[in-house]
Amino acid sequence: MCFQHRHVLLSIASSCLNLQAGDKVKALKCLIRSGDTDKIIFFAGVSRHAEIYTLAANYLQTLDWHARPDLAQSIVTFYSKVSLCTLHAAKLQWPRKP
């Protein structure tokens, strides 16, 4: 097994361990280090955490998203979800009048 394949497998294994421990941010960071774009998009899409959406969108921006419309769409989707999460959190903290 070549070094690069071993490194990817170790990163994926590390992300699985972090996910089992409940640390989704560390799991996503391990996936980002592995460079598996499809798994990063899938993981961020099902996560429901603003920080994860932001990390995934920032990573996708480092790729050649001009040539791949699916990456551009994922970036827009994740940033839209971040603003929806922020808006929802603001509504929950808004002081209500009796």
Plain-language structure description:
- By secondary structure, the chain is mainly alpha-helical.
- The protein has one domain.
- It is 77% helix and 0% strand.
- The protein has five helices and no strands.
- The chain has helices at 3-20, 24-34, 37-45, 50-61, 69-93.
- Helix 2 packs parallel to helix 4 (50-61).
- The radius of gyration is 16 Å and the shape is flat.
- 19% of the residues are buried.
- The mean pLDDT is 77.
**What is the number of strand segments?**
0
Radius of gyration: 16 Å
SSE topology string? HHHHH
Largest sheet features = none
Q: How many domains in all?
A: 1
Number of DSSP helices? 5
First-last Cα distance = 66 Å
Helix content: over 70%
- Percentage of β-strand residues: under 5%
The low-pLDDT segments are none
Bulk shape? flat
- SS-based class: mainly alpha
Averaged pLDDT, please?
77
Set down the secondary structure blueprint.
Blueprint lengths: L2 H18 L3 H11 L2 H9 L4 H12 L7 H25 L5
Helix pairs in contact: 1-2, 2-4, 3-4, 4-5
Provide the descriptors you would attach to this structure in a database record.
single chain, 98 residues, mainly alpha, 5 helices, flat
